Amino acid sequence: MSEQHIASAFDRDLEAVQAHIMKMGGLVEVAISNAARSLETRDEELAQQVRQGDKEIDALEDMINEETARVIALRAPTAGDLRLVLSVLKVSGNLERIGDYAKNIAKRTTTLVEAPHIGSSAATLRRMARDVETMLRDALDAYIQRDAELAQDVIRRDEDVDLMYNGLFRELLTFMAEDPRNITACMHLHFIAKNTERMGDHVTSIAEQVIYLVTGERPTESRPKADTTSQTV
Amino acid sequence: MSEQHIASAFDRDLEAVQAHIMKMGGLVEVAISNAARSLETRDEELAQQVRQGDKEIDALEDMINEETARVIALRAPTAGDLRLVLSVLKVSGNLERIGDYAKNIAKRTTTLVEAPHIGSSAATLRRMARDVETMLRDALDAYIQRDAELAQDVIRRDEDVDLMYNGLFRELLTFMAEDPRNITACMHLHFIAKNTERMGDHVTSIAEQVIYLVTGERPTESRPKADTTSQTV
């Protein structure tokens, strides 16, 4: 078996695993979008669909992790190739967490179905979710194409999501203070907003992974962190 | 080089990596404990220490991940040995996340330093944190000793943490409704409680990893999930 032959067998294996990552990413994108839409339109059935769909995402993660282990055992990759294969585990882990957050949003949507709309929160949450979804698509494209520039752009855009989250955090506090009957609904919306903001962080992790793969260096500490709500007094 | 020699070199490498996991676990335990104590005693300096300490935890994770990649590249482990090495990445990932949650609690503690105590929330949070800390110690012991029974016990105990979280969630809602001036402080306490509950989930993930390593099977779906707050109306 020539060196060339081994190399291309590895490439084929890696491509197969990455195809599953893309499939998983597609499912997660749909979950984000449907979770936000079901909240905005109070669509309980769609929320239920998101909750059910998370099982498929989890199953894909398990499969990807097993495939990855098989590729390592079979091809014994080293250096850059090994780094590439191990990155699959990180990315699938991030995708699984994002799927979990979408599921949690859908759960709370089911709880909120009878609650009145609180200001424009659902629309803001929809906008945040749409941004995160687009960022995720670009992060995965950057991953497949090893495009550090696109990955850097994704990291920058996470700041907008954080800023929207800050605004919503303050708005929801106001609605709570104005009418105690809003408190429980607002609490759920707070957690939904936080979940969406956390999704953005996981997308950022994927983008950072791309930069590490391409440049061999971890992005510097200066990752923009515009979520300042933990300092709100 | 004999087969035996290779095997024991692998074991030595693995032990070295696991020693770093234990060190990382120790730092995370301290972070959990100090985050909760700084909140209860309004100790801003201790909170600052937790925030600073997270850098060391993150650096350890990076080091462990690099060591793991080196062991794989050097020893080309397969089957059970490979599963063992890959589990290190999962466990270090979980520890890093728990450390992050402790850091976030410490951030919010800094914000809450001037706020009045809300009911017995700080004491409840302290109790939750203590439970999570003990669970973490046991989960890591179970990991090193491949003790599936102890791991199963850890998973069971996470239910108590979830139950405490449920109670606190409702209590905080009441305090918010009683006096709107409590709202912002209660919001931070809500997130602190949720962070602690999530820490318990990550400890549970470590325990599940142990069961997978020992039995070769993923724990069944029936993991107790007593956090029902997303259904609170």
From TrEMBL, chains A, B:
Keywords: Cytoplasm, Phosphate transport, Transport. Its main location: cytoplasm. Residues 21-109, 125-210 form the PhoU domain. Pfam families: PhoU (PF01895). Gene3D superfamilies: Phosphate transport system protein phou homolog 2, domain 2. Transmembrane segments: none annotated. GO terms for biological process: intracellular phosphate ion homeostasis; negative regulation of phosphate metabolic process; phosphate ion transport. It is found in: Cytoplasm. GO terms for cellular component: cytoplasm. Plays a role in the regulation of phosphate uptake. Belongs to the PhoU family. Homodimer. This is Phosphate-specific transport system accessory protein PhoU. It comes from Ruegeria intermedia.
